Amino acid sequence: MEKRYIGLIRAKKPFMLPPMNNSAPPAANVVDWTHNGDRVPLSLRWLRMECPCFSCRVEQTSERRWIPGRADDFVATSIDQSEGSIEIVWASGHVTKYSPAQLQASFEVVNRAKLDTHLWGGGDEPTRFDHDAVCAGGPDRMDFLAMLLSEGVAILTGTPSIPGQVEVTMAALGLPLRETFSERVHDVRVDPAGYNIAHTAEGLPPHSDYPSYTHPPSGQVLHMLENDCEGGDSLVVDGWQAASVLRETASHLFEMLISVPVGFRQYSSDRESFARQPIVRLDPSGGIIGFRYSNQLMQPIAPTDPDFEDWLDAYLALTDYLTNPANQRRFRLDGGDALFVHGHRVLHGRSQYIPNAARHLQDCYFDFDDVLATSDRLRGLARAKPVAAAS
Amino acid sequence: MEKRYIGLIRAKKPFMLPPMNNSAPPAANVVDWTHNGDRVPLSLRWLRMECPCFSCRVEQTSERRWIPGRADDFVATSIDQSEGSIEIVWASGHVTKYSPAQLQASFEVVNRAKLDTHLWGGGDEPTRFDHDAVCAGGPDRMDFLAMLLSEGVAILTGTPSIPGQVEVTMAALGLPLRETFSERVHDVRVDPAGYNIAHTAEGLPPHSDYPSYTHPPSGQVLHMLENDCEGGDSLVVDGWQAASVLRETASHLFEMLISVPVGFRQYSSDRESFARQPIVRLDPSGGIIGFRYSNQLMQPIAPTDPDFEDWLDAYLALTDYLTNPANQRRFRLDGGDALFVHGHRVLHGRSQYIPNAARHLQDCYFDFDDVLATSDRLRGLARAKPVAAAS
């Protein structure tokens, strides 16, 4: 089988002011911006692209209106600096002005959307937060979102045990739902007509939902309305930790997980979903950003695929990690508990139960991006308005 | 900047029966399945993983219940073949039986979900289909879905010009909506309070919506309710074709597009979305599967990023291609036209218009996976029931 290498790994570094070096002459295409004693070499072309004026931008929305396309777009005829402000006149006659605050704001966005991830093994139960306090906003909501971002799992307690409540709660948190082919809010209880093992009383090994989409739902909330049955305890396990362990201890197996696409299928009598993707997905820096695992929904790969045996070794090692109780957090969801998980990271499951009493759960999906964006806005990392222009 | 290579490119090949070779002795871990004169070497471990019996699978849903984990899971004590059927007794005592039809079904899934993509340049208008005929189902729907899958764009004509109709149409097609932070069905008309340039009468250069999500909506439908203004014609352009051209003519620039993450942001006074991703995304085979482009929503990358100048060269070349009318399909959306696009491939835009008459469009998003899955089901490529067990 032909194998070639793709892509570049880029080192993950926050944007840092470079060390000051007053003796270096500026390159022709660079403006040495000096501010507060720091010297930052700014590309002329960067300064043209980011021009904040309301000819280049739509004032109503701050979107870029200007489209580069002329040969002399980036030719400057004069550059002036004064007290951290920059003014450039371009060959076209256009004038670009930056205040120090506008330049600083451009740097801020470079450092946005950083996920401060804490990987975990088994042991402690997920952290619980009070539903009403989190919905009210303020520090409780920020703490809840920070935990969900960091560990990929958190529980709200005291969620009203009303069918449909999960949608009300999500609206209060400002998190839009993601629909799949099933109901918008999905009932999980014993259902002889159900299309998924969750609709039986059987135990569910750790899994992520809808790996049968190219991009499975990246967030999931499971709201337990009532849970009076014997058995049916919950578990979660950190898929990124599992993949990281494999990467460190058996990199040839990890390589199988990032390179061999596997089919997953979820279907009902009239609906269908199918995707073929590697189990682990990396970002261009090589960081783990995606994980899908469902022993129950996984489809066969080609029996003559020359990578099959190596891939299966990787799958078996991964399954061994994920199903080992020592690597899981085990707990019970009582009525009123709503379990939030990062759907591309944290797998969930349950033990078998005896359907001798009420057990009713409703779940739905959301986009984990919205958790990070909401958190950034609450923490003041995302400005609601552009920085005012220089006077 | 540290650069390393990641990932393996796997050659894209359909699963094929290997050439018959009666003289080759089977490897110890392989069953040579002979059927209709073909000999297919089947891995013993593959046969155990895919065991179709209702102890290993949930009869109600055909999901895999069996979880591998014992040292002797894959040790066979006897293997028998007869007329294409296989029966294996394992060390655990478990018995696996395959009928020829069951084995054949396992091979079918290996070839599923193939996108038969036709890249295009400028010229012809997108193909139009009759709304009512497509909603009725049958060959018209299959033709419409096939066109949408192949070219990433298709138009329904005669869509009732009723606000909210787009949601009715999508339900008829069995395509669930994807919500974002804006309304579930989104009104596009001049709106002084709008958060996006689409809410003005300005021209819109080709763009994809919500690049500010890690996984932007992969499908979008734009339903024109009325369009009586002067100007405001529509255009689409094939982003995969643009990326392919760049890959062929300037691979060092293409490399920038797949490796350098760029921020995109869409926000309103109380909502926020932000993602940092490369413009082009590849699958593990090196095929182009994702494309995001929005000159208006793009955020600055670090001004001191050593890749900035090369990346900008790539961005300028790409912008030059995308904004060149010779590479675009230009057409007018009249009232009743619903434009469907593959959101990770086909960019859309419009010319400026004079807001001197009615112009009202409603759009919403969906998951392009559902188009392929629906098409596979209609074409008989996805069975609604597992193949019956051998008698």
Protein model, in words:
Two copies of one chain form a homodimer. Chain A is an alpha+beta fold and 391 residues long. Chain A has two domains: 30-110, NE0471 N-terminal domain-like; 128-377, 4-Layer Sandwich (Double-stranded beta-helix). The first copy, chain A, has helices at residues 44-49, 100-110, 131-136, 139-151, 165-173, 239-249, 251-259, 308-323, 368-378; strands spanning 3-10, 30-35, 38-43, 76-82, 85-90, 95-98, 128-130, 153-157, 177-178, 186-188, 204-207, 219-227, 230-231, 234-238, 262-267, 272-277, 280-282, 288-291, 328-331, 338-342, 346-350, 353-354, 359-366. In chain A, strands 7, 8, 9, 10, 12, 20 and 23 form a seven-stranded mixed beta sheet that branches. The termini of chain A are far apart. Mean pLDDT of chain A is 87; it is low at 1-27.
Q: Which structural class do you get from the secondary structure elements of chain A?
A: alpha+beta
Gap between N and C termini of chain A, in Å? 63 Å
Number of domains of chain A: 2
What CATH architecture of the largest domain in chain A would you give? 4-Layer Sandwich
Proportion of residues in helical segments of chain A: 10-25%
CATH superfamily of the largest domain in chain A: Clavaminate synthase-like
The share of residues in extended strands of chain A comes to 25-35%
CATH class (first level) name of the largest domain in chain A: Alpha Beta
